[in-house]
Amino acid sequence: MFKEITAISKNFAMVRLEGSANDDLLNMNVIFEDGSKKILGEVDEIDNNQLKISFLGEFVNDKFLGGIIRKPSLTSKIRMINQQELGELVGENNDKSMVLGLSPLYNDYPIKIDIDDMWSNHSAIFGNTGSGKTYGVARYVQNLFNMPDKIPFNSNIFIFNNTDEYDNAFKTINTYNVNFNYKMFSINGNENNCIKLPLWLLSVDDYANILDVTEYSQLSVIEKMLSLVSAFARNDAESKRYKNHLIASAITSVLYTNQTPGRIRDQIFSILENCYTDELNLDVEVPGIGYTRQFRKCFEIDSKGEFAERVLIAEYIQKFVDNSTKWNEDFVPIYFTLDDLEVALNFALISEGLLLNEKSYSEAMALKVKLHTINNSSYKKLFNYGKFVNISEFITDLIMIGQTKRAQIINFVLEDIDDRFAKALVKVYCRIIFKFSKGLKDRGAMPIHLMLEEAHRYVQRDNDINILGYNMFERIAKEGRKFGVVLDLITQRPTELSEAVISQCSNFLIFKITHPTDLEYIRKMVPNISADVIEKQKSLQAGTCVAFGKMMKIPMIVKMQLPNPEPRSSNASIYNKWMIEWKS
Fold first, then answer.
1. pLDDT band at 390, cuts 50/70/90?
2. Beta-carbon count within 10 A of 538 CB
3. What's the rounded Cα separation, in Å, for the pair 204 and 220?
4. Residue 156 contacts by C-beta under 8 Å, 6 or more apart in sequence?
5. Is the distance from CB of 557 to CB of 105 less than 8 angstroms?
6. Above 80 in pLDDT, residue 525?
7. Domain 98-198+389-568 belongs to what topology?
8. High-pLDDT (> 70) share of the chain, %
9. ω into residue 287 within 30 of 0, thus cis?
10. CA dihedral of residues 335, 344, 362, 307 (deg, nearest 10)
11. In the 8-state DSSP scheme, what is residue 148?
């Protein structure tokens, strides 16, 4: 078949065939034998009876090593790859390997990957809508749970998706093995399956994402809000004294400004409309000498343009100012609700003296509006956890089904949640999971996969880089593998993903992509990708991908078997829904 080598370059050889070329040779692997050397090549181009064969690596003692140092000579013998060599390329059949898919070039020969090489590294799955990427993801997860001798009982796969398309693929996973379980959370789930977040587990950064912080100064208001809600939630005598102190201090700071009495009155009324106690509110009776007056009436302005009861106001307010007490402003996790948080934010607004700074007050009020909007929307139930839990108990609640069963696949369906809020929720979940994993005594003791479907909705270069100094997904991409937190990014729009996250991915499944901008982005951003891989994926059939990275010895075309059962990700059937029988 192979007649002679006509030329050798740095990365390829030109080979003449005996007779005309066979089109089936394209993308096939060949061996250059030169004495003790065995160089692996791949047929890249066919031109009549001329082949261009790229060098991929070398077999040394029957083991494949990627890359070559020595080129084959012009007199090397050329042959097709044999069964033993193919087996070395497509993975070993051992306890640590699983089937990824089939090789369409070699009669559907099973392609196996090392579980650690695949599941211990960040992965990216790209492909156009309809290219089969969702089917492919569902299948390789099913393959993991369908191994003959080992079961991934302790696996933890968290899926975040804006639809329930994976539900059908995984809800019957216990038919594979009675020890396997699946759990789905959604905004419309029941008490045990509704997406919920304990407010006290959220950090300042989490609230910054949820409240869509745009200015750095807003972080200090959130910090104050959390310290106050922690103190107020105790609802003891000290917390009540603290509230009175904050209100009295705020009123005092406004009372002695150089503003007009009318302006002072409006600001004090604003304080007491949002922050009040039994002792300090607009309707409380203020005792004078031989009479009492309602507090709001103390601010009536006399003919001289002054408060008629200015002395009475000052004396009454001063009784509640307590500068001698060192108030504890450290946030301590304690059960509280969104209502409690709104109260604490109102007090934070007056305690920071923001009333006297128009710009800062406007920025702080934006937080108040957003928090109030959430508290009066359907999203409120997402934060109604119902009981106090610490971070370990929260993770346990996510995984466990009842008292004895655990779920290996946990699916979060973010349907009916707008994109901005969904992105914030995913960031919060991922940060809590990452914090939990970092806090484990035995590092990496509980590996967790974060599988982000439509990843371009979440993994973006957001403003939190400027406000917080980091992005949660970029932090996980850089540090997560050390603690067993691994990302799987599934998207049809790789150009919208964070470049820093993509650069940390070690494994890639590239289904068919046709958009030129996406192709150019992949070419530039994906490590070690070649022009050949880019060209290969352009002509792929649905459900077939180019797989490469740490899990593969060489880039290979992989045909993913149909998942069983299939996810609900196919197009709607227009014909069946539109057409009816008709006889004129």
1. very high
2. 11
3. 9
4. 399, 408, 410, 446, 447, 448, 449
5. yes
6. no
7. Rossmann fold (3.40.50)
8. 97
9. no
10. 170
11. S
Three-state secondary structure of 311-355: HHHHHHHHCCCCCCCCCCCCCCCCCCCHHHHHHHHHHHHHHCCHH
Phi, psi (5° rounding) for residue 47? -130, 95
> Tens of pLDDT along 534-553?
777 777 888 999 899 999 99
d(CA 426, CA 423): 5
Helices assigned H by DSSP within 450-559: 464-467, 472-483, 499-502, 516-525, 531-538
d(CA 366, CA 518): 37
- Write out the two tokens for 363: 């920025």
Token pair belonging to 487 = 């990302």
Spatial CA neighbour of 347 closest among 444, 453, 454, 271: 271
Q: Is residue 433 packed enough to be buried (19+ CB in 10 Å), middle (13-18) or exposed (0-12)?
A: buried
**Residue closest to 312 by CA, chosen among 353, 284, 278, 350:** 284
DSSP helix/strand/coil, 483: helix
Q: Which two tokens stand for residue 463?
A: 């403003």
> What are the DSSP calls for 23-36, one per residue?
GGGTT-EEEEEETT
Q: Supply the pTM of this predicted model.
A: 0.90
Give the pLDDT band (50/70/90) at residue 479: very high
pLDDT mean over 218-227: 93
Residue 111 φ then ψ, to 5°: -100, 120
328/266 Cα distance (integer angstroms): 31
530 falls in which pLDDT band (50, 70, 90)?
low
Phi, psi of 411 (to 5 degrees): -110, 120
Burial class (CB in 10 A: 0-12, 13-18, 19+), 579: exposed
Helix (H) or strand (E) holding 83: helix 83-89
